[in-house]
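hi!! sorry for the late reply, been swamped w classes. u asked for the two structures so here they r. pasted raw, havent cleaned anything up. first the sequence of the first protein and right below it the tokens
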Amino acid sequence: MASQILNRFKQFDAYAKTLEDFRVKTASGAFITILGGTVMILLIISELHTYMSPNISEELFVDTSRGHKIRINFDIIVPRISCNYLVLDAMDSSGEQHLQIDHNIFKRRLDLDGNPIEEAKKRRNNDFNCSSK
């Protein structure tokens, strides 16, 4: 039964078979065939192993492409508190903290209704005594 299936499988070929008289079987031909088959199997196993085990590379670096500073405009009214108690702290996306930022920040006194008493101006030495009385 198995031999019949094998014979049918041998007959199922897209290429014409050469006659047995024209076939030359040599030991060197067998060696080259076995060597080529072995190399193909090893290459398939090697590529499969490379495909199945990914190379994970972790790299940490500082992103220097971001801009140095971003302009932020804000207008905040805080009633009934002295300007000495108001400070601005910031943290950027990399986690760097900037504490008590006071450059280019202008504080001005307001009356009880929120109207400015004086024009905004930068004071020296963080002297922001601008609470309304």
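now the second protein. again sequence first, tokens right under
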Amino acid sequence: MSKKKRNILFSILILTLILFPLFQIIFNIIPSNLIELDKKIRIIPKYYNERVTDINNQGSLIKSEDKIDPFIENLLVTENLEESIPVIIYLNYQPGEKIALELKYEKKIEQNDDYYNKLYELTKEKIQESQNKIVTKILRFDGKVKHRFSIINAISIDLPLKYIKTLSQDPNITNICFDHLLEINLVNSVRSITEDSYNPNNNWNYSYNGSNVVVAVCDSGINEAHSALVGVVIDGYNTFTGGRTANDDNWHGTYVAGIIANRDPINHGVAPNVSLINVKVFDNTGTGPSSNLMAGVEWALTKAVIKPDIINFSGGTATSSHDGMSSLTIFVDAITSMYNILWINAAGNKGGVGYPL
């Protein structure tokens, strides 16, 4: 074969490699933010600052010791191995984002409540088998299952420390995170806004008042009988009891609800016409595990009478990692990208100016 022919064939080969993915996108109507790797679809959410949040099929590639939260690693050295600790297990099979894109692009389903219900039910069905296998192993290790999540493929459990490393060797598990205790914020707020620099009376003239907006307040509960909040709460859930009664035995949640939706004609909240979903994730001490918050948010998104537009959480923790891989961070990334939800979190109550918590 002549050198000229070889060059022509080489050029054709290069053009084919470049153009083939484009033809797939054009003729198969595959969204351009889907990339096929080893016959597994990985999602590159370009709307999410090019950050890859997909963790599909990573578990078998990760060393077992690298799956364990550093906080737990420390407990393995310092604590009695017979003691049980609260952990959240993430499985490597995470079909939610793929299902979401299939519903949107292939089945052309409008992103309404029906869309999100289908997304939840299909994801729950897909992950059930993988969760059942892990649950069987957990029970064999004297573990206690507290929550089985469906928005993401994760399980919260209590497990004796001595079984953590053995469980981490399961190739179906990606992460074992400590279920950190969250606590209320807005106790001692930072003085960053002064009366001289901000006059709230000027802002009440705006026409935005929260009409047709639903906010899930994840806190210590809400006193629904409070005179300024009568008729504001449309549904509720108590993560400690599993019931729909979520009374406030700490008063922090009622305080937060008042800031948002106080209907007093003079001292009203920032959005007096908003509707609230009352999700109790803190007890009377103002604390609650991360898994309770995750369970409460999942309930609000999938079981409440109306799906919320906004999640408000005035709490946090200073003990978990801040590397973007904590159990709560992974969960928030998943729900905000798949369920089109806005997450509002309190900040500035702890920490310094450069790194408020």
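hope this helps!! also noticed smth abt the second:
Confidence is low (pLDDT under 50) at residues 5-10, 12-62, 189-193.
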